[in-house]
Amino acid sequence: MLLSGRGSNFQAIAEARLPIEIVAVISNRPQAAGLAWARERGLTAVAFDHTDHADREAFDALLADEIERHRPDLVVLAGYMRILSPAFIARFEGRLLNIHPSLLPMFPGLKTHERALAEGVKVHGCTVHFVTADLDHGPIVIQAAVPVRADDTPATLAARVLQQEHRVYPQAVRWFAEGRLEINRGRVNLKDDSTSQSVFSTEG
Ligand code: GRF
Q1: Rounded CA gap, 12 and 79, in Å?
Q2: Active site residue 137
Q3: Least confident of 26-35, 140-149, 159-168, 187-196
Q4: What's this model's pTM, rounded to 2 decimal places?
Q5: For the CA of 77, the nearest atom of ligand 1
Q6: What is the pLDDT of residues 57-87, one digit of tens each?
Q7: Closest Cα to atom 5, ligand 1: which residue?
Q8: Per-residue pLDDT averaged across 115-140, rounded?
Q9: CA nearest ligand 1 atom 6, residue
Q10: Residue 8 beta carbon below 6 angstroms from any ligand 1 atom
Q11: Judgement on whether residues 154 and 86 belong to the same structural domain of the protein
Q12: Total domain count for the chain?
C-alpha cells in the first residue's frame, strides 16, 4: 500500500474484510495520517521520504527495492501523490493499481473536481485502473458515477466521489486477490462473471 496523506482509501481497503494481507504501508511523507493509522493497527508502516532524495529515478529505485522486500502480489496506490518513473512502473506493471477521482479518460491529473464543475459535466466519479507509463491512463478495472448537483462546490463533489472510491477500491482489490482480473489488449475483463464493473451512486 503506497500513500501520501490521510489514507482513507487505504482504511476502506483495510476494513473491507478482503482475502488479503497488507504486508506494508509505505509513504513518501513521514507525517502522512495513513501511516499513523496503520501503526495503530500493528501493520508494518514505513516512511520513505522523497525530500531526502534529489533524483526521482534514484528515489523510485530505492522505493521499488523496499516494496519488493515485502514480497507483495499487488501494489496499491492509495492517494500516492507522486508521479512514478517509467522504470518503477515497468517493475510492477500488471500488479499496480491506482484510484483516480474522475471518470477517466476525462480529467487526468490534478484538481479533477474543480475541472469537472468548470466544464459543467452532469456526471462525475472515480476510476480504479492498472497503472501504465501513461499518466492516469491504463486499463480500467471499475468506475463509479456520481451525479453533479447544481449547487456543488469542489468540496461537496469531492466528498461524494470519495464515498464511491471507498466502495470501488476494495472491490477492485478483491477481484485482483481472487485472480479474476484479466487484461486483454488494454481492457480489463472479470473472469467467469458478468457482474457489472460500474457502480452508480445511490443518492437521488
Ligand atoms: C483520493 O481522492 C484519490 O482518488 C486521490 O487522492 C485522494 C486520496 O485520498 N488519488 P485518501 O488519502 O485515500 O484519503
Answers
A1: 12
A2: no
A3: 187-196
A4: 0.96
A5: 10
A6: 999 999 999 999 999 999 999 999 999 999 9
A7: 79
A8: 96
A9: 79
A10: yes
A11: no
A12: 2
Q: Is 101 in the pocket of ligand 1 (CB under 6 A)?
A: yes
Three cell numbers at 71? 514480497
Same domain, yes or no: 51 and 108: no
Query: Which residue range is the domain that position 175 belongs to?
Result: 99-204
Q: How far is the CA of 192 from the centre of ligand 1 (A)?
A: 30
Q: Is the pLDDT of residue 193 over 90?
A: no
Cell numbers placing 183? 487484461
Please, are residues 7 and 99 in contact by the beta-carbon 8 Å criterion?
no
Q: For residue 195, give the C-alpha cell.
A: 457482474
Residue 134 shares a structural domain with residue 84: no
State if residue 99 touches ligand 1 by the CB under 6 angstroms criterion: yes
Ligand 1: distance of its center to the CA of 9 in Å?
6
Task: For cell 468540496, name the residue.
Answer: 155
In the chain, where do the E strands start and end?
Answer: 2-3, 25-27, 45-47, 75-77, 96-100, 123-130, 140-147, 181-184, 187-190, 198-200
Q: Residue 195's pLDDT is what?
A: 86
- Name the pLDDT band for 204 (thresholds 50, 70, 90): very low
The CB of 139 under 6 Å from ligand 1? The reply is no
Asked if the peptide bond before residue 101 counts as cis, ω within 30 degrees of 0, the response is: no
9 lines ligand 1 (CB under 6 A): yes
Mean pLDDT for the chain? 95
**Cα-to-centroid distance, 98 and ligand 1 (Å):** 10
